[in-house]
User: Fold these one by one.
Assistant:
Number 1:
Amino acid sequence: MNSAKSFHIYVNGQIDLISFPISYGNKIFLKYEIIYGPEWKLLSGEEQGISQTTTKTNNKGVVLNLPIDFIAKSTTPYGWPQILCKVYCKNWFYTNLIGYSRVHVPIFSSAVKTINAPILQPKFSNFWNNLNWRTPEMKYPEILIEGTQNKGFLMDSYGEVVFQLQTSTRGSSAFEYCWKDNRV
């Protein structure tokens, strides 16, 4: 009997690009945050980050190539890590939120996996609040991760964030977790 206390996941990859149908301006950037459950602990890597400011140069989208690299450990898959992104644009007067995007870290991926995550853009339900032409920003965007508390939100899907992620696990076989063929 193995007395392992936790298993580890290693995640590396990048936020490749942001694509949306129309140009929002010439200064686009992204903030990301890794969110995980209460029994998870980040051992290495950055929990949050921000990209460079870039422009949309072609019809493909805004290229970021923002690296993501972290190691986390847990005793249970409950609260599996997710990446929450906030996409912004800057103009002469203010910084405006384009929307939110989230993705679960792949459970197993011996090769780089491309994931297209939709950008969710919050909407006001009141006509007068729409007159300022700014997208409302959520005070606690982490509730998008849970899924059970966001039934009353009015949101549009507007473009996507493209992730390229690779995941490997270590120690999961001690807990009898079998995720394809990359367990150690």
Number 2:
Amino acid sequence: MSNTGDSVIVRFVTEDDKEGWQGLWRSFQDFYSVSFPNELDEFNFKRFLDPNVKMWAAVAVDSTSGKIIGMINFLSHMTTWDFKDKVYINDLYVDESSRVKGVGRELIQFVYEEADKLDTPNVYWCTDESNHRAQLLYTKIGYKAPKSLYKRNGY
């Protein structure tokens, strides 16, 4: 668990967090102009809670209101470039009213701490080139890798 001063607590999701996580997950989709089937919400949330799956979600909770104001989804995977796994941050979203207050930084710091506990300190993520606000944070807590992302046509 991580704590931004006394106002925000970052922790793994629990079964009781589904509605709050789901609201942010949908806002994340709106932000990136994508849409996933509702069944994917349930599928992912079950995976986050399954101790046999190396995929997790954490939430940032406003300690005053109890409202979930941020979420981060991440996973661990093997790599041919190292003996240790890597951790990939798949999704990060902070409610618009809670941005620029350190919540995104605390969510990423939570992942860093969990990756260290797993002995997988190599953490990486990507973002849209146009997401300049997020990049202002990312350059403070990481570095921009000299790689370009390519995807299979049609996917």
Number 3:
Amino acid sequence: MYSVLLVITLILACNGAVILSDYHHDYGLAFGHAPAIAISHAPAVIGHKEVDYYTPPKYEFQYGVADHHTGDNKEQKEVRHGDTVHGEYSVKEADGTIRTVKYTADDHNGFNAVVYRHGHALHPTGHHHQAIGYGPIAVLH
């Protein structure tokens, strides 16, 4: 329905548009030498694969990085069933702690995250350099 309204809007907005039709009763819109835009009530086809817009989405993934040379350590995993998403990720912070975030998102509760911090913060000790001064600063009034 929305695709039909979009095409009608395009027809009214553009001058010189030509309406095309073929033996399948699908309609198209062409501008000059541009290819026709197919409009049909059949499921969308990308290449040779049909796209289903009505089945609830479902996926699951995870990945991780553990680079001992650079110290880059992180992980993420996520699961989606319909309109509900659950996941978590962890990142190694600069102070040596691990931050883990566990989250959920759905239509009823929105996005909710709980953050955990594991380990103790380590701060490097080093030499403290004394600032070099050139004497008192004169203030003129």
